Structures are given as C-alpha cells and as structure tokens.
Known about the structure:
mainly alpha, elongated
Amino acid sequence: MLNGSFTLLITGLALVALEEVGAEPVNHVKIAIKLLITLVIVVLVAKNRKFATIPRGLWGLIGGLTIANAAVAVLWQ
Length: 77
C-alpha cells in the first residue's frame, strides 16, 4: 500500500505537470482537492506501515478515499 500510495502521488503530479504545458487550462481547484485526498492517503498508509495488519475501518477509509479520488478525476468536469 505504501508503494502504491507514493506511485499515486508521483504519477498524479507528473500528469499535472504535463497538462500545464498543454494549451488547455488546468482546473487548479480540482487538482488541489485531488492532491489533498492523495496526501491524506499517503499519511494514513505511512503512519500505519509498521503494523502487520490494520483495522478494517482504516482499510475501508483508505479504500474509500482512493475511490473518491478516482471519482473526482472522472466525474468533475
């Protein structure tokens, strides 16, 4: 989960950087919300990486935030 959350963060930043170079404007509010959600995911995963297992509620929260992050990307026009 830690590697996946860091990959999510790095690829997201790379895609935004590539989009900034393009001709169309970037919705900075959308990017800021996605970045905030991603940072929460990274912090939750990083703080709980020392445990062999995590509580089901935390696992569900991380999964829900990941789905919410994807939903913001797809549904926000």
